[in-house]
Amino acid sequence: MGKSSPKVPPPKGSPRVSTPKPKSSPAPSPVPTPLALSSSSIPGDEAPLPLNISITDLKKDKRDVKQCPDPRKSQIKAQIEHSINSQTDKCHINLVVIGHVDAGKSTIMGHLLYKLGHVDAKVMHKYAKESHQMGKGSFQYAWVLDEHDTERERGITVDVAVTSFTTPTKAVTLLDAPGHRDFVPNMISGAAQADYGILVLNADVGGFEAGFKVDGQTREHVVLAKSLGVEFLIVAINKMDLVDWSQQRYEEVINNITDFLDKSGFKNKVSFVPCSGFSGENLASISKTNTKLLSWYKGPSIYEKIDELPPPQHGKDIQGHFRFIVSDVYKDAISGIGVAVGGRIEGGFVSKGDKLLLQTLNEIVTVKVIKFQGNFVEWAYAGQNVDIGIQGVDSPQISLNVP
């Protein structure tokens, strides 16, 4: 979408934080594909759509649409510039979690969210009980993000789960991507919105090797992440408890993957962290009783390393026309009216009341609500991952599925 002057993912899982998406049973095909919006645009399903559709501002559209100067825009722009320059807001980053299937991506992030207080203890107890009843007790923390019945039954992530949390200096939008090869397009949808990534590796003997071999997803995910603009990787070496927190195994994994990461464009742009998603060790801190890990590791936890990430290099491009990557389309999800779309703002800014061109349908829609980090806001700008409630088009007209 652009302004006139003005993962299945809607956020699934616990947060975008507080806006769970309607559940449905996702299927391997068709799969969601990231598309783009601008000062008026959304993908339509009348014809197959290419990856990352280009969009234009309403001013450039061939339709004869008269525009009246909106004094609000200069005021809103000034407020945004003041907010950015004064650093009154925490630095916002988009963080995608990638890696081979069963590396423990959803378990790590689900357990971290629980430790940070984003998941109620009663809800976590329910997940633990129900996952054990299904014979999948080790997936209890993954259920924080994997909400679909299909995902829970199969024990794999299918869609991109979108949630959010904060660190002392960062406001983080988290995108938990699937690792199964059948859902690579969904992984691309998540990585296309990300500034940084967490690459999860399985430290268990044979586990790392399975993901790193030629037909494993570790290599493909790294290459795709780099090509889609991910600037830095936190490499979480997971399941260290299964190798008794062996420093030798930790260093073996690092030595085996470092050359590949360097050649993929991440030389001097990676940080390695040992952890256990299931036990929770070194997600936010290391237990004092874990003397084996404490004896040789003195670095940051996953949470601390996220907080140390620098501001994204792309900056806050609020000067140009509004451009928006659409990754989710869903009805009545946040506004109770019309349609909601979710994704990342690539340029410019948007505010309530703006008129946007839905380019593939050539229809004008109105912004009714904007939601960022679980809160309703008056405006949002480049780099932020948001949900936008729009009025003027029905969701059946909009499709992110490519046959």
TrEMBL record:
Domain of life: Eukaryota
Main location, first listed in the record: cytoplasm
Record GO cellular component, one term: cytoplasm
Subcellular location field: Cytoplasm
Region (Disordered): 1-50
CDD domains, per the entry: EF1_alpha
Short name of one Pfam family: GTP_EFTU
Entry-linked SUPFAM superfamilies: P-loop containing nucleoside triphosphate hydrolases, Translation proteins
Swiss-Prot/TrEMBL GO biological process terms: translation
Protein's UniProt name: Tr-type G domain-containing protein
Lineage: Eukaryota, Amoebozoa, Tubulinea, Elardia, Arcellinida
